[in-house]
Amino acid sequence: MAGYTFFTNPMSRGQIARWALHEVGADYEQVIVDYGAPKPAALLAANGLGKLPTLVHHSADGDYPIAETAAICAYLAETEDNGALAPTAQERAAYYRWLFFAAGPLEQAITARSMGFEPNERQKVSVGFGCYDLVVDTLAAHLRGSDYVCGARFTMADVYVGSHVLWGTMFKTLPELPEFVAYGERLSARAKYAEAKAIDHALIAAAQATTQAAASAEAKV
Ligand SMILES: N[C@@H](CCC(=O)N[C@@H](CS)C(=O)NCC(=O)O)C(=O)O
C-alpha cells in the first residue's frame, strides 16, 4: 500500500497538495473524485465535508486522515523528507504567520471580492481580513524584502502561499505586482512544481477530451 491515499480532482486545491506531495517525495495513490458525482465513502469517512484535497496517511502506527490544504502542506513538511521543508526555529514565526495568513485573510479577501462583498468601515473591524487592498499590500511588502516566505530558503509555506499568488495573478484575482510575478517565477521554475502540474494538466486534458467525445457522440444521435 502507498504511504498516502490522496483524494483529489485536478481542477481543485488538490493541485497544491500534489505539489506538496512531490516536493517531499511522498509515495501516494490518487483517487480522482468527479464534481457532481457521489462522494466515495472513504473520502467522507476521512473528511465529513467531503472536500478536496483530503489525504489519509497510512503510517506504521495507523491511518491519519488530514484535510485543509494548508494543514496538509504543514503535515507533509513535518512528516516526510526528514522535515527538510519544515521551518527551522528561526523560520518558524514567518512560516506559521504567512501559512495562516494565506489560508485565512488572503483566501477570504479574494473570495469576498470575487463574490462581490466589500466590507464597509464598520464591517472591516469584524471581518478577519479587514480589507482586500491592505491584505494585498501586506503580502507584497513581505515578498519585496524576501525571496521566499521565510527568507532565503524555500519551505513548505511557499507551496501554499505561492500557489495562492500564482493562481491569483493568473486568474486576475490578485494584481500583477512585480513582487508577486517575481515570486511566482521563482516557484514555477522548480522541478517538483513542473512534475506535479504536468500530472494535473494531463488529467484535465483527458477529462476535457472525454467530455468533447461524449458531446459529439450525443450530437450525432
Ligand atoms: N478549506 C478547504 C477548501 C477545500 C475546497 O473547497 N475544495 C473544493 C475544490 S477546490 C471542493 O472540494 N469542492 C467540491 C465540493 O465541495 O463538493 C481547503 O483549503 O482545503
TrEMBL record:
Instruction: Outline the extent of the GST C-terminal domain.
Output: 88-213
Q: Tell me the SUPFAM superfamilies matching this sequence.
A: GST C-terminal domain-like, Thioredoxin-like
Kindly give the Gene3D superfamilies that the UniProt entry links to this protein.
1.20.1050.10, Glutaredoxin (3.40.30.10)
- InterPro entries to which the protein is assigned, alphabetical: Glutathione-S-Trfase_C-like, Glutathione-S-Trfase_C_sf, Glutathione_S-Trfase, Glutathione_S-Trfase_N, GST_C, Thioredoxin-like_sf
Pfam families under this entry?
A: GST_C (PF00043), GST_N (PF02798)
Q: Which family does it belong to?
A: Belongs to the GST superfamily.
> Would you tell me the protein name for this molecule?
Glutathione S-transferase N-terminal domain-containing protein
From which organism does this entry originate? Novosphingobium humi
Source organism phylogeny? Bacteria, Pseudomonadati, Pseudomonadota, Alphaproteobacteria, Sphingomonadales
